[in-house]
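Hi there,

I know you've been waiting on this one. I reran it after we fixed the sequence typo, so this is the corrected version. Both the input and the resulting structure follow.
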Amino acid sequence: MLLLTRPSTDTLRGSESRQVRCYRSQFRDRMEMRADFQTVGAYLDRHEGWFRRCAAPMEVKPIDEQAYALTLGRFGNFGFEVEPTIGLRLLPQNAGNYAICTVPLSNQDSALADLYDVDFQANLRLEDNSASDSIEELTAVSWDLDLSVWIHLPKMITLLPDGLVQSSGDHLLRQIVRQISRRLTWKVQEDFHASHGLACPPRRRAAF
């Protein structure tokens, strides 16, 4: 069992301890919806339905009408693992743009707060993608994710080379983000078309 020492500062983000590491990853993707701009926007506005369905098997619990507690799954490095749960707020549409940001969890275990911190910032944009010479209405949904995870590692891991600890953690986070984000993109696209009785476009590669 790995023993942990507490960080010397109040927040992990401001810590200068060698045991606190920040891992970052970005993700970009795009999905095509076979419906008009207003129909797609109305679907995304009702996130209390699609967000919980499409985030599965990740655990989702509502915080309020706009926010949810989301358990991302296990993340770790060199045998040390945490299972981050974060608060996400899905902000109302603003001219075809949606933002998702991190919010504090009021009931988070203080011991866990000393082990990790997560900053999740995402943006979704709706674009009318219908061709002028086609009767089919298409809407493209582009989204970007910027994710940072701060982890307070066991002291023994700091004995390893800094570059190895950083690169291995960054690589693992990229894999997790890619897997979760790709699956979420596919499930939202499939859920939208199924709920509207439309044929779903084929899956496409992410612009990761």
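Quick highlight: Residues 50 and 191 are 7 Å apart (CA to CA).

Best,
R. S.
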